[in-house]
Design goal:
The complex is a heterotrimer of chains A (342), B (383) and C (450). Chain B is mainly alpha-helical. Chain B has helices at 8-22, 24-27, 36-59, 67-83, 88-110, 115-134, 138-141, 156-161, 180-203, 205-215, 217-222, 228-252, 263-276, 283-296, 303-309, 315-326, 333-347, 351-362, 366-377; strands at 147-148, 172-173, 176-177, 255-256. Mean pLDDT of chain C is 87; it is low at 1-38. The chains are: A mainly alpha (342), B mainly alpha (383), C alpha/beta (450).
């Protein structure tokens, strides 16, 4: 029982990540009708916002410590982060909390990247076929990841969990079970909470703001909204920017869980597409539901008891579900009629 | 010899293509690419791209899972080496058959959907094959270590003809060893045959039908016409081509690893076809050669090479040019590939072949001008 | 075939050139070498010799690959008589004089294996066919090493394996043309078992997470046997894909499994990820069965320790070599490497460097690059001064036998390089085993012709 509960928690945690990554993809598809194969790259760029920010605040000054020797016999170089020199104790806190703080950096950066991408490339592809959209964004994904590789190298960049959030929380005790029965890493709980908040914020934004209402109207009938004299194009551009921000934030907060490297985007791209397709292309609630569903299934499929029944199921469960859903419910769990058909 | 008949223009293409392929060891010399390992890749990936083009170029179905068939072909061929004989012919036959069987199974399911859903389905199947080959199917695929020959393999047929030697046997063709150049010529001949068959398909009524699927599937089905068997046939044929290419890969190097089934490998096939020019006969082949050339030669460029190339520039300028250029060669060759690919998709959706056509149209001269005029009258002949 | 005869390919040009040299007797040394002085794959003809270094620069083991490359470059430098000579002066053999190999200046080409068998073999083939490499070294994944070793056997090019730790490399899949200086999983078990038994007591329950390929399997098998010999019980063994990244779904079930030790048969970035994630799950602070929960990393390098940071503290593992060793060879190598790169060498760098030197020395002693003679020079060769004490290159399986080090993550590192501590040494005798237990056969000496 405790084991099932822990696995469920792991599934929710994974699901939160999947849903968050897929959200931006389905947002772009729903609003702009563009299949964006560079979405994984946006996730990766977000993660590298955190890396770059940390690299910046941990720039070091080097002093030579004559009392210690390096392994090869010369005096040891002691490195001190400049942030600590400038801000003293606050600098140390900044370094410790670099990941959450870099959210502040990631939002404007990703918004700009998103808008630039839409204005510079995507908008020329609204009229082209989906296949061509896939191809050009696939090319863009390669270019973006190789650029990151040029600047950051091929190796992953570990990002620390802030000291206050290290270790595990006794979730079992919170819900009245025996102490230590169900424990779960604090930062993963933070990520789950974070994804729920971001997803909620995107929904609220679309639901309760005028901007969101126009966008939703545009999603339903772009021409009519355009005829009403509303500049729907500009709003769609901003929506693309927002999708980029959501993907970027998902990336920023994910860095302590998995050190990012240039290839992170491609690794998550297939997954995010599967989530979107299972949820239904262009459906926001669908993407969220599918994200959590697949996360939980993936987690349970990795249990030894399940693997003993169906060997290898942990390796294919996500794809298997996608295939079945696509064949049985062509529009996905919550997809709208007529999207991408024919 | 009726089945050998082709329109005259196609026959000329075939003849020129044959000469180009068979003389590779000569004309690749100045490019530093005339070594067997790379030339084998050139022809094998050309087969793969030609096959992929039968599906994507004719029907418009974009498969992101073609590498799976390549992998299946390789595994089958290596198993044929291990269990039956080191001869290439059974290995190739089995590889083609298995590629076709897998394509039939995956295609039957995937073709129930079209557009992006089809792409995602093929992607999902390919990833499933890859993940399984990597994990629970290890007894069949040898997982990450990759399937290899062992001296102790049964090799039933070979066993009938004599004792195994002291070392590992290597693939052969009717008793003749297949090393370096011999293997290249085998692959080259197979490429020519495959190319010819593809040409036949392109001009056949079946090919016309496939083009009709691409241009307007809805209209096709309104006329009461069931397009799926045709699309499935195209899918299976291109799966067989991929299986064949996989089998040849195993002949040139008897090892089969799961990596060649990964979705990024499928993506590479798409890149080749698009770069060269989808829907044309020669385009995918050129795309395949370009990418393999970049991967093998361009990727070996380093700053030393660049300094030699740019040595005519003044010193200060040279430093900068080399610094910037070095990001695009060597390990950065993927960046170049990505950029070129994007530019092609944006400005030249017809790939390099469209570029060639446009150039011809811009500078009409003699025969090509005549051909252009003819093409204008008969657009399908241009493809 | 026809083109070879017509002398159009690069290789045939080389061959004709060689034949010409032989015919005119310009190279009396080759003649004097008698019958086997004929052609073999990439026989060096000019005044240089090319070595191929095939390492992972991307993928799960990229960190180790980059360090291997540094060591290879350093070794080439020292062979060519540049730099401070590193371990050449401490090496028990005195054939290396800084005059290249057999008087030929050493050049090298590099390639990226991407930590994948296919890509590695491709890259090795390119080095042999395009660049004319006469020896290939590298590795960093046993799957890759075994695949490349098979290729080298076919092509008749010697493969000096660097970082590969699976029992199969010199066991089931051993090859006449493949040589391994690095230790293996069996030796890890012999070294680690008693240490774990002494530190954590006899009554423990272990849970294995294992990288799903040859190295992971053999490590799991060897460590399981060694710990069970200490009275431990194995609760569960779970296979995880290489490069999985997020291991949380595999770590979650550990919590309620009744295990009190987690053994992570992971290496490189996989090891770093699974270890840090396991620590994030609070496993190190956990109590199970009334005991403190422990994590073990059977194969550990200082690159992993640096990547894992605090998580590595007090975790046991084994290492082929560590820079803090105090013998003359280790000190000389660490000094030379550190001066050039500003960081101490890892075990991967050490084994790469040593393998290059050993190859050069074997060629010098054989007096030729002809592979069968070089192989015979390496087989059953006894040497010292390269960091692990007296070492034997056993002829029956091409495995080196030398001391194996049990290491532990330092609780309080004094500086950024001081990450591991050598807590125990398993003697060469104790880690020597009968080659028959792993089977396999080496195959013929006859050189393939590329």
């Amino acid at each position: 029982m405790d084991a099932i509960l822990a696995q469920l928690l792991n599934g929710l945690d994974k699901g939160g990540a999947y849903a968050l990554i897929a959200l931006g993809l389905t947002l772009v598809f729903g609003t702009l009708g563009v299949v964006n194969f560079a979405h994984g790259a946006l996730f990766m760029l977000g993660a590298f916002c955190a890396v770059a920010f940390r690299a910046f605040i941990t720039m070091e000054t080097v002093t030579i410590d004559e009392t210690q020797l390096s392994p090869w016999g010369s005096p040891l170089e002691v490195r001190t982060p400049m942030a600590e020199q400038w801000f003293g104790e606050w600098g140390a806190v900044m370094v410790d909390y670099s990941v959450p703080i870099s959210i502040l950096v990631a939002i404007p950066v990703m918004l700009l990247i998103g808008i630039a991408m839409e204005r510079g490339l995507i908008k020329h592809f609204y009229k082209r076929t989906h296949a061509e959209q896939i191809l050009v964004t696939f090319g863009l994904a390669i270019v973006l990841q190789e650029l990151v590789k040029t600047f950051f190298g091929p190796n992953p960049w570990p990002q620390p969990v802030p000291a206050d959030f290290r270790g595990a929380a006794d979730v079992g005790a919170w819900i009245g079970l025996q102490a230590g029965a169900v424990t779960y890493p604090l930062w993963r709980l933070v990520y789950l909470l974070f994804s729920v908040v971001v997803i909620g914020a995107v929904f609220a934004f679309l639901r309760f703001t005028t901007f969101g209402m126009v966008v939703r109207a545009g999603m339903a009938d772009r021409e009519t909204v355009g005829l009403l004299g509303i500049n729907i194009d500009r709003r769609f551009t901003i929506m693309f920017g927002i999708a980029a921000v959501v993907a970027g934030l998902a990336g920023v907060m994910y860095t302590p869980l998995l050190p990012p490297n240039y290839h992170l985007g491609m690794d998550f791209l297939v997954l995010s597409f599967v989530v979107v397709v299972v949820g239904g292309m262009g459906s926001l609630p669908g993407a969220v539901a599918a994200g959590f569903l697949l996360g939980i299934l993936q987690s349970f499929a990795s249990m030894t008891q399940v693997k003993a029944l169906i060997p290898g199921i942990d390796q294919i469960i996500i794809y298997l579900v996608a295939v079945i859903i696509l064949l049985v419910m062509p529009r996905g769990l919550l997809g709208r009629r007529g999207v991408m058909e024919g | 010899m009726d089945f050998l008949r082709l329109p005259k223009k196609d026959l000329i293409t075939f003849a020129v293509f044959s000469v180009v392929v068979l003389t590779m060891p000569i004309w690749l010399q100045p490019f530093g690419a005339a070594y067997p390992g790379l030339m084998q890749k050139f022809v094998i990936f050309a087969i793969l791209a030609v096959g992929f083009n039968i599906l994507f170029g004719l029907t418009g179905y974009l498969s992101f899972g073609h590498a799976a068939f390549l992998g299946v072909g390789s595994y089958t061929a290596v198993w044929s080496f291990k269990l039956l004989t080191m001869d290439a012919i059974p290995a190739l036959i089995f590889a083609v058959v298995m590629g076709g069987v897998f394509a039939l199974a995956i295609g039957y399911v995937s073709l129930r959907r079209s557009g992006i859903y089809f792409s995602i389905l093929t992607l999902a199947f390919a990833q499933m094959s890859y993940n399984l080959a990597y994990s629970v199917l290890t007894p069949i695929t040898n997982g990450e270590t990759a399937l290899q020959l062992a001296r102790t393999d049964p090799r039933i047929i070979d066993g009938l003809f004599g004792e195994a030697g002291a070392g590992l046997p290597s693939p052969s063709l009717l008793g003749a060893n297949l090393n370096g150049f011999e293997a290249f010529y085998l692959c080259a001949v197979v490429l020519l045959v495959s190319f010819f068959i593809a040409q036949k398909i392109f001009v056949s009524p079946f090919g016309m039908m496939l083009r009709a699927i691409k241009s307007n599937q809805t209209r096709m089905s309104y006329t009461g016409f069931n397009t799926r068997p045709y699309a499935l046939a195209a899918f299976v044929i291109s799966g067989m081509y991929a299986g064949l290419a996989g089998g040849l890969l195993a002949i040139t190097d008897p090892l089969a690893g799961a990596e060649r089934m990964q979705w990024t490998a499928s993506g590479e096939i798409v890149l080749m076809t698009i770069l060269g020019g989808v829907g044309t006969m020669i385009g995918p082949v050129i795309g395949a050669w370009l990418i393999k050339y970049l991967e093998n030669i361009f990727s070996a460029f380093n700053e030393g090479t660049l300094h030699r190339v740019f040595s005519f520039l003044p010193d200060g300028v040279e430093e900068w040019v080399v610094l910037i250029a070095s990001k695009f060669v060597g390990e950065g060759w993927h960046l170049t590939l990505g950029l070129v690919f994007m530019l092609v998709v944006i400005f030249l959706p017809g790939g390099i072949m469209e570029g060639v056509r446009r150039l011809r149209a811009a500078f009409p001269s003699g025969s090509s001008a005549r051909r252009n005029r003819r093409n204008e009258l008969n657009p399908s002949a241009a493809e | 075939m026809s083109f070879k005869k017509r002398g159009i390919s690069r290789r045939s040009v080389m061959k004709t050139g060689l034949a010409g040299i032989l015919a005119t007797g310009v190279s009396p040394m080759m003649f004097s070498r008698g019958a086997w002085g004929q052609e073999f794959c990439n026989a060096p003809t000019g005044d240089t010799v090319t070595l191929g270094f095939n390492v992972p620069l991307t993928g799960a083991y990229a960190d180790e690959g980059a360090d291997e490359l540094r060591a290879f470059e350093l070794a080439v430098e020292h062979l060519n008589g540049e730099g401070d000579g590193g371990m050449i002066p401490t090496f028990s053999s005195d054939t290396l004089t800084g005059n290249g190999i057999l008087g030929k200046r050493v050049e090298f080409v590099t390639g990226d294996t991407q930590t994948q068998s296919d890509a590695a073999r491709d890259s090795a083939r390119r080095m042999v066919e395009r660049d004319g490499a006469v020896m290939i070294s590298g590795g960093s994944s046993s799957g890759v090493a075994i695949a490349v070793q098979g290729l080298c056997q076919e092509m008749g090019v010697i493969f000096m394996a660097a970082l590969t730790h699976s029992n199969d490399t010199t066991g089931k899949d051993k090859r006449r043309y493949g040589f391994r200086h690095f230790f293996n999983a069996y030796q890890t078990g012999v070294g680690l078992g008693p240490q774990l038994g002494a530190a954590y007591g006899p009554d423990r329950r272990a849970y294995h997470l294992t990288a799903d390929y040859t190295w992971g399997w053999t490590t799991e098998e060897s460590v399981m046997a060694a710990t069970e010999a200490q009275g431990w019980e194995t609760v569960e063994t779970v296979r995880t894909p290489v490069g999985a990244g997020d291991f949380s779904q595999y770590i979650t079930p550990v919590l309620n499994s009744g295990a009190d030790v987690l053994i992570l048969n992971h290496y490189g970035f996989d090891g770093i990820n699974s270890l840090t994630q396991a620590v994030q799950f609070g496993l190190k602070d956990r109590q199970a069965n009334g005991k403190d929960f422990k994590i073990v990393l059977p194969l550990v390098s200082d690159l992993m320790a640096a990547g894992a940071g605090d998580a590595m503290q007090e975790v046991y593992g084994t290492s082929n070599w560590y820079w803090s060793l105090q013998d003359e060879g280790s000190k000389a190598f660490t000094a030379s490497f550190g001066a050039k790169y500003g960081q101490p060498p890892s075990q991967a760098a050490h084994t790469s460097y040593v393998q290059t030197l050993l190859y050069a020395d074997a060629v010098e002693r054989a007096g030729t690059f002809y592979p069968p003679e070089v192989i015979r020079a390496l087989e059953d060769y006894e040497f010292d001064g390269l960091g692990n004490g007296p070492t034997l290159y056993r002829g029956s399986d091409h495995q080196c036998f030398k001391d194996v080090y049990v290491v532990q993550g330092k609780a309080e590192p004094s500086n950024q390089f001081d990450l591991l501590e050598v807590v125990n040494t398993a003697s060469r005798d104790s880690v020597t085993y009968d080659p028959a237990i792993f089977g396999g056969e080496l195959g013929p000496y006859d050189p393939g012709m590329c």
